[in-house]
């Protein structure tokens, strides 16, 4: 079974809105609705769990009712940080799915994800036990220097950009977080499952990525998403 774990527990303060960015409405629908729809309509996704920010359970219920999202079978409470939310989602599935099932951890504010990206993450995870959508760095890259300028560049051929959904076998995902906690790594790495895996010396397998699969972070991203929705109408 393939289960999408959609993370909707964040605050999204950089957007500058009064509500978490995943609940901001774009053309009459919350961003989260569009994200859930991508997995609801994907033929290889069997079920969905949403890790929801506390206090927004009613909004989530309304989203699922309005969209007819019958694949949403579980709701877990969001944590203070990314890793806390993932752990909450994994624990909530204990006894519900098997260790050999695959979970696809995806951001609720990443509605651009395509069927192709989801399918290839499932395929590669089936072969190797984990997968992260990846694509080459398309822009010229540099070190941050002093924040105002730099004299050093980064060879973009030496860099890959990773995104979500991060797919893992359920049993392996639980082990990653249990072992990461045992080593005291959870609050010392970038807030991504793949970052934790790298810190533990684990190999991350690449699946097909896309430069269009962005996570909404700023008000500019919201405007871009609105245009994307309009273009598809």
Features:
34% helix, 12 strands, alpha/beta, 233 residues, Spore Coat Polysaccharide Biosynthesis Protein SpsA, Chain A, 8-stranded mixed sheet
Can I get a quick summary?
With 233 residues, this protein is an alpha/beta fold.
Topology:
Elements: E1 2-8, E2 25-26, E3 29-30, H1 31-40, E4 47-52, H2 57-67, E5 72-77, H3 82-92, E6 102-107, H4 115-128, E7 130-136, E8 141-142, E9 153-154, E10 160-162, E11 166-169, H5 170-182, H6 193-199, E12 206-208, H7 219-231
Parallel strand pairs: 1-4, 1-6, 4-5, 7-12
Antiparallel strand pairs: 2-3, 6-11, 7-10, 7-11, 8-9
Helix pairs in contact: 3-5
Helicity, as a percent range: 25-40%
SSE string, helices as H and strands as E: EEEHEHEHEHEEEEEHHEH
* Beta fraction: 15-25%
Q: CA-to-CA gap between the ends?
A: 32 Å
The parts where pLDDT drops under 50 for at least 5 residues are: none
How large, in whole angstroms, is the Cα Rg? 18 Å
CATH topology: Spore Coat Polysaccharide Biosynthesis Protein SpsA, Chain A
β-strand number: 12
| CATH level 1 name | Alpha Beta
Alpha-beta content class: alpha/beta
CATH-scheme architecture: Alpha-Beta Complex
Number of discrete helical segments: 7
Number of domains: 1
- Assign the CATH superfamily: Spore Coat Polysaccharide Biosynthesis Protein SpsA, Chain A
**Largest beta-sheet details:** 8 strands, mixed
Outline type: globular
What average pLDDT do the residues reach? 93
